[in-house]
Amino acid sequence: MLQKTVFSALPQEGVLYACAYGSKAVSQHNYNAKNSLLDLLLVVRDTAQWHLLNAERNPRHYSFICRNSSTVNSLQTLGAGLYYNTNVLLGNIPAKYGVISRKDCLDDLLNWRHLYLAGRLHKPILPLLNCNEISEAVAMNRKHSLLVALLMLPSRFDTLQLLRTIVGISYHGDFRMQLGGEHPLKIEKIVNGQRESLESMYPIQDRATRKGNGWIQDVSPLARLHLLTQTPSNLQRVLQRRHSLFELASLEHQELEAALRTALGAIVRWPAIVQAAKGVITAGPTQAFAYSLAKLMKRFST
Predict the structure, then answer these.
(1) Which pLDDT belongs to residue 67?
(2) Helix residue spans in 77-194 (DSSP H)
(3) pLDDT digit string, tens, across residues 34-63
(4) Which SS3 state, helix, strand or coil, does residue 104 take?
(5) pLDDT digit string, tens, across residues 137-195
(6) Per-residue pLDDT, 1
(7) Which is nearest to 167 in space by CA: 197, 127, 135, 207?
(8) Contact 137, 110 (CB under 8 A)
């Protein structure tokens, strides 16, 4: 059982919520994840205390630069508030695990403060340790992504368009997509490989009407305004740097989609850059290079 393997290797004390995500945790059709790392998320009550316990048990998980607690605690708060230990063995499973505080986790899931953790949880996950507060925030995060996707879509669309839009939300502004760090068809591969799971996560019949092989939605200014007022607070804040919600609701479809893409990119861009820079320090230069090389090899082999 994966939960037992994970918490035989890592301290469970102080962990409020844990899940696995990515292709190693949730299988994708036509994709062999044998050589991939298992991606894990741990939401903890006190990050400083948890790292002390973990460093005592797993000192080799931390790079030589991060062998003192003050460095770890300083790095923890930068970027999207996630601290990753990369390319470690949990039992006999190669893994990468991210640690985040309850406060930062809830802020990103509910408000899209960084849309970093939130974006990863737009896709299917494998829960390992549940907590009602975090689980409810995960559900709200999915609801938000569905609402934003509908605002980015025209009056008529099909299920594949919807799923591609949802999965793509957190990749707007992600420099890895622009610089070749991720496969250019990554969104398509996720949707095609996990379509059944994604469809069960996003029940569109509650928000649109079936029409032939697709769906139709109300795109009147009033309907759009209703959706806009339900989107995450940080997205609303960034959108309103240029337009009020009333103005946005009255835009042509292409203009509204462009405004949303720009706002999502503005939220994602800087935290993604900082998290990547943190990775060089937390993993150490050698491990960071090996991890980046493995990503590139996977990109060109699929």
Answers:
(1) 82
(2) 102-111, 117-120, 132-152, 159-168, 175-179, 186-193
(3) 778 999 999 999 999 999 999 999 999 999
(4) helix
(5) 999 999 999 999 999 999 999 999 999 999 999 998 776 655 555 666 889 999 999 99
(6) 84
(7) 197
(8) yes
d(CA 145, CA 150): 9
**Residue 167 and residue 202: Cα distance in Å, rounded?**
11
* Tokens matching residue 29: 């059709």
Structure token digits, residue 294: 């493995």
Residue 33 scores a pLDDT above 80: no
- Which residue's entry shows tokens 């993993």? 283
CB 101 within 8 A of CB 47: yes
Tokens of 67: 């062998």
pLDDT of residue 254: 97
Query: Alpha-carbon torsion 184, 118, 22, 27, what sign?
Result: negative
DSSP string, the chain: -HHHHHHHHS--TTEEEEEEESTTTS--TT---TTSPEEEEEEES-HHHHHHHHHHH-GGGS-GGG-SHHHHHHHHTSTTS-EEEEEEEETTEEEEEEEEEHHHHHHHHHH-SSSSHHHHTTS-EEEEE--HHHHHHHHHHHHHHHHHHHHHS-SEE-HHHHHHHHHHGGGTT-HHHHHTSS-TTHHHHHHHHSHHHHHHHS-GGGTSEEETTEEE---SHHHHHHHHTTS-HHHHHHHTTT--HHHHHTS-HHHHHHHHHHHHHHHHHHHHHHHHHHHHHHH-HHHHHHHHHHHHHHHHH-
8 Å CB contact between 87 and 96: yes
pLDDT value for 32:
67
